[in-house]
Amino acid sequence: MTADRDAERVEVTVPRRGDRLTVRQGSVLHDIDEHTVLGDVYLRALARAQLRLALLVSGAVAVTLGGLPLLFAVVPSVRTVRVLGLGLPWLLLGIVAYPLMGAVAWFFVRQAEHTEREYTDLVERS
User: Fold this and answer.
1) What is the 3-state secondary structure (H, E, C) of 14-56?
2) What is the DSSP string of 78-89?
3) Of 11-15, 59-63, 67-71, which range is least confident?
4) pTM surpassing 0.70?
């Protein structure tokens, strides 16, 4: 009786996670490569996120650096302020602007890489 039972037993297993992930990942990558509707949705989401970041950063730079000459034109007394022997306009536009641009560039690259990592994770999970 036990021999009959053993012969009828069937082992049921769950597929390994890595195998299932590889199959899914391949299909999403295939969708992106083949420009299917789903692949286009993924690419548009990435492009939108990158565009949003670029507009945010360039808008902040334009307002900050573009607003300084406007401030100097509207409030003439600011032009005569001297800091460390330099006029405030020269100090801000000639010296402070460059480290500011370096910090903005660092922020932009860091955020762009973060967006790309999120996109890669999204594609790998799908």
Assistant:
1) CCCHHHHHHHHHHHHHHHHHCCCHHHHHHHHHHHHHHHHHHHH
2) GGG-EETTEEHH
3) 11-15
4) no
